[in-house]
Amino acid sequence: MLEELASRDARAFPVSRPSRAEAEAAVRTLLRWAGDDPSREGLRDTPARVVRAYGEFFSGYHMDPVALLERTFEETEGYDEIVLLRDIRVESHCEHHMAPIIGRAHVAYLPHRRVVGISKLARVVEAYA
After folding, report:
1. How many CA atoms lie within 13 A of 119 on its CB side?
2. Could you tell me the sign of the dihedral formed by the alpha carbons of 65, 71, 77, 79, in that order?
3. Three state DSSP letters for 77-108
4. Angstrom distance (rounded) from CA 107 to CA 68
5. How far is it, in rounded angstroms, from Cα 30 to Cα 26?
6. 14-54, pLDDT tens digit by residue?
7. pTM to 2 decimals?
8. How far is CA 59 from CA 1, 54, 83, 92, in A?
9. Is the CB of residue 106 less than 8 Å from the CB of residue 69?
10. pLDDT value at position 34?
11. CA nearest to 1, candidates 111, 99, 78
């Protein structure tokens, strides 16, 4: 199952990542495009803040969901109940407009010989958000 997850993962495709300076220049360009002056006092530090924020927003691209699920527990003798984690807060962005999306996710699975720590399920949701 983990191998199948890894093979379908879009993160397997390398992307040429611009430098921080290039990203900040892009923010300045968007500010000018919107009709504002990125060099005015209230906006001078905005490009750096936006780039830092986007680094946090898209941190899931640097997470390996397969690695998150590798550590498991074997003490599951006789355990055949569903494992469910509900109401995981999800913060993401629409890939078409980069508009924020906020919601909740629920993850459930039936363990087979091993269980994963419940916190790892939330981390996998974060990685894919």
Report:
1. 1
2. negative
3. CCCCCCEEEEEEEEEEECCCCCCEEEEEEEEE
4. 15
5. 6
6. 778 899 999 999 999 999 999 999 999 999 999 999 999 99
7. 0.72
8. 24, 8, 26, 10
9. no
10. 98
11. 111
Tell me how far apart the alpha carbons of residues 107 and 125 are, in angstroms, rounded to a whole number.
8
Residue 38 has a CB neighbour count (10 Å cut-off) of 18
Residue 57 tokens read as 């927003």
3-state SS string for the chain: CHHHHHHHCHHHCCCCCCCHHHHHHHHHHHHHHCCCCCCCHHHCCHHHHHHHHHHHHCHHHHCCHHHHCCCEECCCCCCCCCEEEEEEEEEEECCCCCCEEEEEEEEEECCCCCEECHHHHHHHHHHHC
What is the phi-psi region of residue 25: left when phi exceeds 0, alpha when psi lies from -120 to 50, beta otherwise?
alpha
